[in-house]
Amino acid sequence: MKLYESEAKALYRKWDIPVPKCYGLAESVNNIEKLKISYPVMLKSMVLVGGRGKAGGIKRAENLQEAGKLLKGLFKLTIKGLPVQKVMFEEAVPEAEACYLGVTIDPGSYEILFLASPEGGVEIEETAKTRPERILKLPIEGSPKKLPGTKANEIASFLLESNARQSANLKKDGTNQSTDDRAGRSVNRPCDLKEKLANLATNLYRLFQECDCRVAEINPLFLTPKGPLAADAKVVIDDNGYYRQAERLASIGIPGARHDVAELTLNEKRALKSEFKYVDLIPNGQPKKADCIYVGLVPGGAGYGIFSIDEVVNIGRRYFEGKVIPLNFMDSGGGPPAERVAEMFHLLMDNPVVDCIVTSRFGGISSCDTFIRGLIDCLRTRHARKARMLPVYGRMVGTDLASARTFLEKARQETPEPLADLHIEVGNTKIMAEVIREGLGAFIARKEIRA
Question: Which residue range is the domain that position 311 belongs to?
Fold first, then answer.
């Protein structure tokens, strides 16, 4: 779970990591007047992707009039597919020597890895390719709760000595200090900078450990005359540790979990409350194409959920001129209760974009009997409430299939009207691809007749 820069810096403040003053967030141009801003000020687009600066998502304003004009432009911006909906107003600080600090997990050893580089303000991956000697990769053996003092001092020394060597080389080459940022800025280092850098590294590591982070980084880290300052901040929380962090995150204004790239949609929030995985595949509010079929998916497990998306797309391309669009990923989790199964179908039928539903229950851990009871309960409830109902095409096979078949047959006899548009193949008489193709074909034929 990624945090916005404003949220990451709110955490940094709690862990005594120096950051520029934040004046607040704006969600519209009118919000500027409510913020008590001292100019100049930085306007930073809040999106959960990198490359904001290169995309024009970070601006500097010298006064209120300029800030208002720039803010209008930022709200029209889309960065890597994400629209800018919030902008942070932050103190503009003079640029200084720019370094990089980051803590992550080594994918090979699964131990914590501390990264440091005097090459700040650029992508660390680019530095690794072009100047690998400028990166310190420091494994923290045993992943202790606190960063050992020797490691903190090693990180601080590397940053200072690397920049000192570069400044000396620049002078030897005859480079004019006044025209070279690094060489010129290193003159104003405070005498206790090494100690302050070591303390900052210690605090960043402590935050990483205590907040269940996968990544905690500062890029750039400015070395100002007053000491190090985190000009940018990136934090990624491990989803598996979210339950431990919920209260802490709520204290900085994060009410619940979110996607890696964006806020949860209304459907995703609803699914989260009902304890099943759900992801919308098309943006909310996107206009619906009149000649396409939008298919909601209730699969039997996460793996089959991904497969179902591909299968619907492939069948749509092969048989229906590519006019079939899967709307969602969904996973009920192992052994879901009937109430959760019912809510999965309710969610899709409440979505006005969905035209029909494709479902498949391969009962392993999960029971076919529980699945069909949940589905039928949804249909009966909606019929009684005169709520929107959709055709359901699918198949179930596996655990408790016999009792599921018996329940389905009895339900059809007792309440035929709510189940009139339920088309479920019981057993292995047909493969799922055939079930999908026949279901979509029947839906299109009925749609053409009504037209």
Answer: 266-450
